[in-house]
Amino acid sequence: MGLNGVLYSLYTRRLRTQLTGANLPRHVAMVIDGNRRWARQMGFDDPRVGHRYGAEHLHEVLGWCAEYGIRHVTVFLASVDNVRKRDSDEVGNLMRMIEDVVAERLRQPGSRWRVHLAGRLDMLPQSTRHALKLAEEETSGEFHLTIAIGYDGRDEIVNAIRSLLEEEGRAGHGVDDIAQRLTADRLAAHLYTRGQPDPDLVIRTSGERRMSGFLLWQAAYSELHFCDVYWPGFRKVDFLRALRSYAARHRRYGA
């Protein structure tokens, strides 16, 4: 191990010590951004290679989450705009990575993660829908992973309102009655993520400092951490720094 390796090991140990007994998030959501830019930075001729490295890196980061008892993780794999507007070859490559590296590996024996899905699955190729549905149906671990794909937070809220109105209409309730009975909890029961706790901490890689439509409802009171590294280069020390930052904050709901 060279000097850099020794220093990295010592710093990681220091961060672990600082987190001993700390208040850690029970739900971490992540915008895993920067795969193509990382590939260019690393000198790859085809930046799409970054999607494979990013997909493989997800499993390593999930291991870190499990190590620190973070039982709920949500990852933003692809937005509605990613699926609709990017080059078809790039989208096809990304979907294959999700099928072969993400969904397939989560289904392997011994996986500790139970998969949940959030987003417009109807927008995805049939093979990707099938792979993700199998992962959802066949996993039953003690840790929960929500995969946000074909996802847009505004669409989610609109669809939740539509679903609530349709449910109330079938029950024979009028508009005035629906309006009187409407609450945040009742609407949340129609979100893609119903039944899951809201994220305590949202991490975004790549240096971008925006939510990009991710969990707009659920992250209303989340702590935000923006990391200036691309997703495939997101190291354990970066993860531990995010946890340390969270632990140092005093959460003030509604203020």
UniProtKB/TrEMBL annotation:
Cofactor section: Mg(2+)
Active site residues of this protein: D33, N82
Cofactor note: Binds 2 magnesium ions per subunit.
Pfam families with a match to the protein in the record: Prenyltransf
One GO CC term, this protein: plasma membrane
Keywords for the protein's UniProt record, in alphabetical order: Magnesium, Metal-binding, Transferase
InterPro entries per the UniProt record, alphabetical: UPP_synth-like, UPP_synth-like_CS, UPP_synth-like_sf
GO annotation (BP), single: polyprenol biosynthetic process
Binding site for Mg(2+): D33, E223
UniProt: substrate binding residues: 34-38, 48, 51, 79-81, 86, 204, 210-212
Assigned EC number: 2.5.1.-
GO molecular function, one term: magnesium ion binding
HAMAP family found in the cross-reference section: ISPT
Family: Belongs to the UPP synthase family. Z-FPP synthase subfamily.
Subunit (UniProt): Homodimer.
Cited function: Catalyzes the condensation of isopentenyl diphosphate (IPP) with allylic pyrophosphates generating different type of terpenoids.
NCBIfam families membership: uppS (TIGR00055)
Protein's name according to its UniProt entry: Isoprenyl transferase
